[in-house]
Amino acid sequence: MRAVNAGLDLVEIAPTSKPPVCRVMDYGKYMYEQSKKAKLAKKKQHTVQLKEMRYRPKIEEHDYRFKTNHVREFLEQGNKVRVFVRFSGREMAHIDYGRKILDRIAEEMEDVSTIGQEPKLDGRRMTMILNPKTSALKAKTKRSQDAEDKDKPVGSEKVQENSDR
User: Fold this and answer.
1) Where are the domains of the chain?
2) Integer Cα distance of 45 and 35 in angstroms
3) What does each C-alpha distance from 161 to 102, 157, 165 come to in angstroms?
4) Separation CA 9–CA 12 (nearest Å)
5) pLDDT of 140 above 80
């Protein structure tokens, strides 16, 4: 009766409790606010993608550095990375070269990643999966926030003009 007089709705909050809990509210407004909260939560969440980086057993040092820097960027963004070495032809006789490359990558990335899957041979590919460390992600976001703060002027800072020039 109170809800009808106020032009609001009587909404049952907890039907299983004894006695059931009800609230007088505008149900349309309540549903709108719930949808806004859900959209905001969805916007803030980060989906983890699986990125891939392919190496060769006889890779040159510059190419290795270039690809490894990309792997580091992927991990700092919070993505998993599948690193694999592709063998062709007679390179299958020297799979130890591929193992050395994967071990070197794992060693260089140990500050930003953990090994999700140890290197294993799948046909002509030796594959390893790296998972990002949460501590590296937090440090990365803190650095980017600090960089943004330095660009903004503090308080009412103004540039003083020199009249001599």
Assistant:
1) 1-27, 50-140
2) 16
3) 57, 13, 9
4) 10
5) no
DSSP-derived 3-state class of residue 10: strand
User: 50-140 architecture in CATH?
Assistant: 2-Layer Sandwich (3.30)
3-state secondary structure of 122: strand
Write the single-letter amino acid at 56.
R
**Claim: this prediction has a pTM higher than 0.90:** no
The mean per-residue pLDDT over the stretch 150-161 comes to 55
Structural contact between residues 26 and 12, judged by C-beta atoms closer than 8 angstroms: no
Per-residue model confidence as pLDDT tens digits over 72-120: 999 998 899 999 999 999 999 999 999 999 999 999 999 999 999 999 9
The number of helix segments (H) and strand segments (E) in the chain equals: 5, 6
70 touches 105 (CB < 8 A): no
